[in-house]
Amino acid sequence: MKNTIITILVLLALVGGIYYFTKNTPEPTQNTNEPVATTTPVTQTPQTDKTKTVIGKSVSGKDIVAYHYGTGSKEVVFVGGIHGGYSWNTSLLAYEIMDYASSSPESIPESIKVTVIPVLNPDGLTKVVGTDAKFSPTQVSTSQTVLVSGRFNANNVDLSRNFDCDWKANSVWQKKSVSGGTAAFSEPESQAFKAYVEKNNPAGVVVWYSAAGGVYASSCGGAVLPQTTEMTNLYAKASGYPANKTFDFYETNGDIVNWLSKINTPAISVLLTNHKNTELEKNKKGMKAMLDYFNK
Question: Which domains does the chain have, with CATH numbers?
Fold first, then answer.
């Protein structure tokens, strides 16, 4: 009996020693020189993730940027700021539309790619607001002389008189004589837009101007394209702006949307009502009408 008790006590001691040793032995240190396997969460890229393309440079070397939303095969292009700081509200509208596209991915159909060029004339915008990037209305100059100067690029050319449709070196803005450049597409800004359009062949183009409060079809010495007529009427109906077959307040040689018509790209001009308001809600409805139309 005595031997049995001793045997039990020895076994208990051995078990206790093994437990103590196991509990207090440190874990092996990882060799930090060896690659460590990590798992990176895989996330789906939303359809309307913004990408951007620098499509060219201004006269003074500022980037002209196109922002893209969606990945569809049909591209619809919206352009602001061709008249720089004189029509600064068109650039501000473009930035507001970009915010809307970013925050409302469901607004862009799967078949559509939306491209927004908020500032086609960055030198002209900088003259008036001090930057070629997103800005606040409080930054806008109150000088009428400065505002008018912002219509033109750094070569003092009216960019919407520099495209190849009835181009003239000496053109007209209202009752004023303005420069259309030394030749059609003489300016780097218009060259950049031309190259982008010819490379990407957009389904349709909307150019925002101010100020007359209307939607205007494009043409270049011929009939209005059927799709342009449909775009004009649909944008007008959705937004509440009146629809117009032509812009006939004064001669517009070298106009950007008329050049687009010449190369068979459906395009319309949307003129905001004044030089201060963006009329975002009206133009969001107009934009939706365009996307629904090209989503057919």
Answer: 51-294 (3.40.630.10)
